Structure prediction request, 286 residues.
Amino acid sequence: MASTNISRCDLKSIKVGFIGGGNMASAIGAGLIRKGILNPDNVWVSARTDRTLGFWNDLGAHATLKNGEVVDNCEIVFLAMKPHMLDDALEGVKATISKKIVHVLFVSVLVGVELDTLASKLKSVILHPRIIRCMPNTPMMVGEGITVYCSMDTTDQDEYIIQTLFSFIGVSEKVPESLINAIGGLSGSGPAYAYLIIEALADGAVKMGVPRPMATKFAAQVLIGAGKMVLETGRHPGQLKDEVCSPGGTTITGVHAMERGQVRASMMNAVEAAVNKSKELGSKLK
Prediction:
């Protein structure tokens, strides 16, 4: 990959668009705008309704109901609609664009949709599409996201820019396309699993008399702290767990209760189910 350095100033000059202005587009775009990486005046977003676009108007971005306007004005265009809406979105591009598409990098966040499928469909609007397929997650909005990506017919500069953009709002890594769905079942869906765990831990504390706001705050901090322990110590989660479990103590008793509830198996099943659903969604577009 190219080693060219790109400054924050350079990134602010890049014109970035989103076709689809929902949760994932908001996590990426708002995360980069709020960190001062993207200039909102260089961001274009299209959606099907004005209701969705209100959020982007408030950020200072250009909001439009015309997909073609996004492609007309941008060098990088994120495909951020639901997977089954891709064909309609591209028809919208063709119906509303005012010039020939030549130098646009398309970045897909469509769950399960493979590069070959994306290339086949994008050729209806551009002869030689440059494509990055990625799987981000919503904590990018607070600078703690995870994004994995793969590419087709891109330049080193394309990949460097995308890697740099995503690195400002979390962890970013290029992976083989064969791993995208599997990682997505962990990182893409994982925040929802974590929120469920936070809520459950807080509920347990509330049951034992802790006020709800305090219980939720501390439950969330437990996950932040435990995650940092794994990342910064490099030790296996099982080892760190054992270090908290004193013989005959409170924590090992709690762990036993979790094992009786099959929490470990449930988490594994959740990742597997999400991965299988990604494959199912992608297969519908082939």
